[in-house]
Amino acid sequence: MALDLWAYENETVDSGFTKIAGIDEAGRGPLAGPVVSASVVLPRSFPVASVNDSKKLTPRKRDRLYDHIYENAVSIGIGIVDPVEIDRINILQASLLSMVLSVRNLSPVPEYLLIDGIFEIPVDLPQKPIPKGDALSISIAAASIVAKVTRDRLMRRYHLDYPEYGFEKHKGYPTKAHKAAIERHGCCPIHRHSFRGVKEYI
């Protein structure tokens, strides 16, 4: 039996809410770059086909779905927290902050939030955290795609400033090539100084 990706949205609508935002983040694990969250409100007519957890999609399919989501969504909000703030407040708090910022950038304001993960976020709206929500909710899956593509494009832009690190390939994640580049060149301004694998080279 196929999984109903609208199940959480339908349950929320049955409770009396209409504008429902799915929220997800990208970039908790990298050694460099920002953490990016997206909040997405989808119309009830949005087709499910191919929309899934962004980590399970090819880059080409993600880009295609990103465009499709932007063409059809009721509203999309993006929240970005930079490496300096990540180092200041820690990556978990920075991830939650990026989610808050993405909600604040939604217009109209949503009535209910479906959040990937186990944590609520500090906004005055009813909300439901859903572990592995990016594979269970169509709205969260759409947000995961938007967040991932947005962050990947930022990292490709950073590659133009710091080509020696190969950000266009690994997007700041702790790959063997990235670690070797840090060892060879030291840190650049977008590295997260509080992360193991970086702080040793400051």
Structural overview:
The protein has 202 residues and is of the alpha/beta class. The protein has 7 helices and 5 strands. The protein starts with 6 loop residues before the first helix and ends in a 17-residue tail after the last helix.
Name the poorly predicted regions.
Answer: none
Would you tell me which CATH topology applies? Nucleotidyltransferase, domain 5
H/E series, N to C? HEEHEHHEEHHH
Distance between the termini: 52 Å
Number of strands: 5
Please give the structural blueprint.
Elements (H helix, E strand, L loop, with lengths): L6 H8 L5 E7 L8 E7 L17 H14 L2 E7 L1 H7 L1 H14 L7 E5 L10 E4 L7 H24 L5 H4 L5 H10 L17
Parallel strand pairs: 1-4, 4-5
Antiparallel strand pairs: 1-2, 2-3
Helix pairs in contact: 2-5, 3-4
